[in-house]
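Sanity check record (used in CI):
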Amino acid sequence: MLVESMKRHCGRSSLGDSRALPTDLAGPSRLELCANYPAGGVTPSLSTLQTIHQTLRAKTDRPVPIHVMIRPRGGDFIYSAGELAQMKAEIEEFKATGLVDGFVLGVLDAAGCIDRGSNGELVDAAAPVPCTFHRAMDGVGDLDAAFKAVIELGFRSVLTSGGPGDASAGVERVKGLQERFGRRISVVLGGGIRSGNVQELKRRAGVEWVHSAAITGGGEGLDEDEVGRMVKLLRVA
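Expected output for Copper homeostasis protein cutC homolog:
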């Protein structure tokens, strides 16, 4: 499960198991749904989306937007024609449920740049559902050119740590990206964010959104106490 926050509101994102949803869902802004977190996240199943939606309805009366990752496999972000066709088909299937409020995806070309053609087709397939460009951004050499490309392609937000490594290493680069592009696209800071650094990194980057796996102690699953700590910290940030 991941954690995202906007200003003083906090949202969380599921790894694909409804049992992992925190008991207290007060204040979430949105959830990002994916499967196979150790691989960096891949497309979840339709049944998982439906189960998460039903669980949320049972736990809170307030709508919690769900963003779904579209990624056919772990590894790099250079996809074959067959994989791209699979991604488009998955977008259509998830859209048809009426339960998706956003998609999280990203494609690079063989040169490690934004694949304009493939990303454009996926954004068009998702429309009018908004898209976030995920941390494939962190493998790009020229971040400014990449940000300009995803803005032109119609992405609504970008998840980034500012390059290879975690948010602590790239926070100054993210600050610069926020200053140059933040009026045109939402910049989401992610990568190694936990309760011990979330306030400082959010302040230094100057962003409205942060993203965290909320995994502690070398575990593989969400630490509900860690989620609670971050929620409290972000509410006063």
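DSSP finds seven helices and nine strands in the chain. If this sentence no longer matches the regenerated tokens, the check is flagged for review.
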